[in-house]
Amino acid sequence: MAYKILKKEEIAPSVHRMIVNAPDVAKAAKAGQFIILRINEKGERIPLTIADFEKDKGEITVIFQEMGKTTKQLAKLSEGEFLEDFVGPLGTPADIRKLGTVILVGGGVGVAPIYPQAKAYTRAGNRVISIIGARNKDLLILEDEMRNASSELYIATDDGSKGHHGFVTDIMKRILDSGDKIARVVIIGPPIMMKVGTEVASPYDVEILVSLNSIMVDGTGMCGGCRVTVDGKTKFTCVDGPEFDARKVDFVELMNRLAMYRNEETKAVEKYEEECRCGLH
Amino acid sequence: MQEIHGEKAGKSKKERTPMPEQPAEERIKNFNEVALGYTKEDALAEASRCLSCKEPKCVEGCPVNVDIPGFIKLICEEDFSGAIEKIKGTNALPAICGRVCPQETQCEALCVLGKKGQPVAIGRLERFCADYERQQGVQVPEVPEPTGKKVAVVGSGPAGLTAAADLAKLGHKVAVFESLHKAGGVLSYGIPEFRLPKEIVRQEIDYIKQLGVEFKPNYIIGRIKTLDELCDEFDAVFLGTGAGLPSFMGIPGENLNGVYSANEFLTRVNLMKAYDPEYDTRVRVGKHVVVVGGGNVAMDAARSALRLGADEVSIVYRRGEDEMPARREEIEHAKEEGIIFRLLTNPVRILGDEKYNVTAVECIKMELGEPDQSGRRSPVPVEGSEFTIPADVVVIAIGTSPNPIIFKGSEGLEQNRRGTVVADEETGATSKCGVFAGGDVVTGAATVISAMGAGKKAAKAIDEYLKEK
Ligand SMILES: Cc1cc2nc3c(=O)[nH]c(=O)nc-3n(C[C@H](O)[C@H](O)[C@H](O)COP(=O)(O)OP(=O)(O)OC[C@H]3O[C@@H](n4cnc5c(N)ncnc54)[C@H](O)[C@@H]3O)c2cc1C
Ligand SMILES: Cc1cc2nc3c(=O)[nH]c(=O)nc-3n(C[C@H](O)[C@H](O)[C@H](O)COP(=O)(O)OP(=O)(O)OC[C@H]3O[C@@H](n4cnc5c(N)ncnc54)[C@H](O)[C@@H]3O)c2cc1C
Ligand code: SF4
Ligand code: SF4
Ligand code: FES
Ligand SMILES: [Mg+2]
């Protein structure tokens, strides 16, 4: 069983879009779900959000950022090559209904999971205000796609090289302050951004959802490695989520759990890059 | 023949032939198989102890009723091919059962020799025959004419594998859907290499593939397709999805870094080979490891942790050693390897540092109270007996229940309060037309051989159902 890489491009420095042939996954995919892939027999299983899907063509798009060994190795693969394993769609689909006006906030590669939601919320008849951001304009992804999928699009960069100089959450606050009736805010990005965004939005009378990214193995509820605390109770992100009521999430625990293998991960990257330099890969 | 056996056993063979093993101090440094298997001489010596009873009690103890005196007699005659054929008449996975069956509570528990001395080492002999066959190269039986019927098997553990093999032998077209990337269920992700080499599991699966069974890994029923959709596409469905959902204790500190479910710990180690630096998956190697539980799963986790390089591994169990549900042999092996047993002890909370890393487990001593309705004395905490055990890795091995994912999109599939699928004991028939189930998904966590037995019965019932359909 192997899954062919149909297309691959670098859409921002160290951020790649990959289209994979996986007809069964594509047929069942819904916004908010993810896949788990494994590059080869010795590889680890890593989750990536389904950034787009074409049911008829049997294609799944993922967008990933080079972080450590596996994503760097993934970035080196070319069109026409194969992934050993590609399983999905995993996770409970996002709860997308007609609500009125929704704000979608995406930071960094978090824009990738926001994109299918923007399309789905729009299709469900919502007014979709999207806010996307990155550290600088070069790192900003999916700007055109997001503009097409949203009613309004705002941009923020940390260094001010494009759009608002500052954070996506600043824009979100401004909209919430404007008095417009907002039914829901969805925030997806690095945990610290989701945590801060949640704190900013919490005082308002608005539903807040986040999509969590805890460390996973199987993605089917079998290992419990992805557990998070929500409303004081243990939940498995891969089956109970990844989307949760943001006000109830224990972000500090999440961030600490994400750091569990940090030392080993650093070593793995160093070793991998050393091997690459020696021409072993 | 019978007398000769009887005489021999009566004279000198009270004790069973020992199993050659890797010495404890060596094996704790590797993941290779602990028990090395009988030589031909060992097997002949052990087989000669069997009395060839006319009404063999041992057979009653085996959930699939292997013809035990029959195959042992063939061993005595040095007809090892005949012996394995006899076993395979009722048991499709003898290399596995010979290694992992809890023989001391099944076949060997009822062997007459056990009354005065030690029972015949039936499991070891079964393993010997299966290993002999594997060395010779396994014969693939002829597959009968296709019936034109299609059966979906969900889950590739022992229940699913057995059902798939039997259905294929009856000429039905079988597809096995497995959510993980590798087939085998607990045999692949749970039971460690040192107890059940994965090469054996692979060979058994290859054999089933040669019967024409199609394996579909990375295929989660309830996600990619629902059970209802499978019912539309196939003439019948067998559910062998096991009991893969880990239970936690619900005590404070359970989400600290370094606390694993046994499923996660063992999946990382076995399926993902975290012990091999060539593989990318990691597992935290503890200095002080605490494993909570008293079953096979706990023993496997503890012994794996030791092999990963832990300095000290202890098992914390709330009852006494006699109540431990693990196979006797594994308890003995664990002790030989230096695993510390802290019995009548229960964790009350897990302590950590500011980075959320585990530092210790606080436990309380237990004592056995008055017998409850079932007559079992249940453990009660001894007030004020709390103490802490330093730990940087904690593995929770207190049980599992069926993964509910299969119920998504399965109209009319009845389940029990415990989350198990309701199925007829004899046929595996569920409340949903054309859907049969067996193994841990029906019984809750049980044994390899009982899952296989259920797969076998269901295959027969499915065949009858398809004939009538
Ligand atoms: C539901 C979900 C959806 C995700 N979607 C995307 C996406 O669309 N695009 C994207 O770029 N990233 C996504 N991620 C994160 C992505 O899985 C990690 O970046 C990736 O696993 C890092 O692997 P690595 O070996 O390259 O880096 P490593 O150096 O091994 O890890 C870098 C960091 O990633 C996290 N991580 C490591 N292993 C895992 C794992 N098995 N599961 C989850 N997180 C892990 C840890 O915080 C770690 O510190 C998602 C994560 C989850 C849980
Ligand atoms: C660590 C450990 C050690 C053990 N040791 C012993 C022992 O020594 N002796 C013994 O007799 N028993 C032992 N057992 C118990 C024994 O392994 C189980 O009772 C047996 O494997 C159950 O078989 P099964 O086929 O019902 O399920 P499983 O072996 O659990 O297989 C079920 C399979 O179904 C798959 N699946 C689940 N849901 C889906 C879905 N929705 N779609 C597709 N696939 C799905 C799973 O991924 C899995 O591969 C042990 C168990 C464990 C965990
Ligand atoms: S299958 Fe298991 S219980 Fe039956 S005879 Fe073999 S070892 Fe004993
Ligand atoms: S009961 Fe014991 S001695 Fe008798 S046939 Fe069975 S294995 Fe042999
Ligand atoms: S990743 Fe294993 S239970 Fe969620
Ligand atoms: Mg990694």
TrEMBL record, chain A:
Q: Which UniProt keywords apply?
A: 2Fe-2S, FAD, Flavoprotein, Iron, Iron-sulfur, Metal-binding
GO molecular-function term, one example from the UniProt record: 2 iron, 2 sulfur cluster binding
Residues annotated to bind FAD: 63-65
Q: Name one GO biological process term.
A: pyrimidine nucleotide biosynthetic process
In the record's cofactor note, how is the cofactor described as bound? Binds 1 FAD per subunit. Binds 1 [2Fe-2S] cluster per subunit.
Q: InterPro entries from the entry?
A: Cyt_c3_hydrogenase_gsu (IPR012165), Dihydroorotate_DH_Fe-S-bd (IPR019480), FAD-bd_FR_type (IPR017927), FNR_nucleotide-bd (IPR039261), OxRdtase_FAD/NAD-bd (IPR001433), PyrK_electron_transfer (IPR050353), Riboflavin_synthase-like_b-brl (IPR017938)
Q: In this protein, which residues make up the domain named FAD-binding FR-type?
A: 1-96
State the source organism's domain of life.
Answer: Archaea
Pfam families, per database record? DHODB_Fe-S_bind, NAD_binding_1
Q: Which Gene3D superfamilies did the record assign?
A: Nucleotide-binding domain of ferredoxin-NADP reductase (FNR) module, Translation factors
Record-linked CDD domains: DHOD_e_trans_like1
Q: Does the keyword Iron-sulfur apply?
A: yes
The cofactors required by this protein are: FAD; [2Fe-2S] cluster
Per UniProt, [2Fe-2S] cluster binds at 223, 226, 238
> What NCBIfam families does the record point to?
PRK06222.1
Q: What is the protein named?
A: Sulfide/dihydroorotate dehydrogenase-like FAD/NAD-binding protein
Organism (species): Methanosarcina flavescens
From TrEMBL, chain B:
- One GO MF term attached to the UniProt entry: iron-sulfur cluster binding
Q: Which residues form the Dihydroprymidine dehydrogenase domain?
A: 27-137
EC number, as in UniProt: 1.4.1.13
Leader sequence range is none
According to the UniProt record, where is the region Disordered? 1-26
Oxidoreductase among the record's keywords?
yes
Q: Which PANTHER family does the protein's record reference?
A: GLUTAMATE SYNTHASE [NADPH] SMALL CHAIN, GLUTAMATE SYNTHASE [NADPH] SMALL CHAIN-RELATED
**In its UniProt entry, what is this protein called?**
NADPH-dependent glutamate synthase
